[in-house]
Amino acid sequence: MMTILRWALNAGALMLLPEIVTAIQVRSLTAALVAAIVIGLLNTLIRPLLLLLTLPITVLTLGLFILVINALLFWVASGLVKGFFVPDFWAAMLGALVYSILTWLVDLALGDKQAHMRRR
Fold first, then answer.
1. Which regions form coiled coils (predicted)?
2. Could you tell me the pLDDT band of residue 28, with boundaries at 50, 70 and 90?
3. Maximum distance among all Cα pairs of the chain, rounded to whole angstroms
4. Smallest Cα–Cα separation from 91: which of 111, 115, 75?
5. For residue 91, which of 9, 65, 81, 99 sits 20 to 30 Å off, Cα-Cα?
6. Predicted confidence band of residue 115 (pLDDT cuts 50, 70, 90)
7. Pick from 36, 48, 52, 47: which is nearest to 72 by CA?
8. Cα–Cα distance measured from residue 33 to residue 35, given in angstroms and rounded to the nearest whole number
């Protein structure tokens, strides 16, 4: 039950995102729900591999390259989900950053300490 609540709240965060980053468009609640799943799957399945492959550049940039990886995965999700549109890399960068903050607040509100520790 907690997973469904978290999914719905993350979709709500995606619905709020165009109010903060005007370049991003979310056309419907359905698109937000699907995008929340796709972003979660990309972060679970592909992000660890990308972090491993880009470890040298991540170390050289003192971890800042992780922001680039997050933005690229956010942008890829927009290409996979109809009704969720991110026009360019910089919008993806800002959108991924704001979405990360919003989902962190969701985790904090739900009292999920494990999710908070996984994000570090």
1. none
2. very high
3. 41
4. 75
5. 9
6. low
7. 47
8. 5
Q: Which residues of 75-96 are buried (b: 16+ CB within 10 A; e: fewer)?
A: bbbbeebeebbbeeeebbbbbb
Residue 41, amino acid: L
Q: How far apart are the first and last CA of the chain?
A: 25
Tokens, residue 43: 């972060």
**Angle made by CA atoms 34, 37, 38, in degrees to the nearest 5:** 85
Alpha-carbon distance of 85 to 79, in angstroms, equals 7
Reported pTM: 0.87
Q: What is the DSSP string of 19-83?
A: HHSTT-EE--HHHHHHHHHHHHHHHHHTHHHHHHHTHHHHHHTTTTHHHHHHHHHHHHHHHHSTT
Q: Say if CB 33 and CB 7 are below 8 A apart.
A: yes
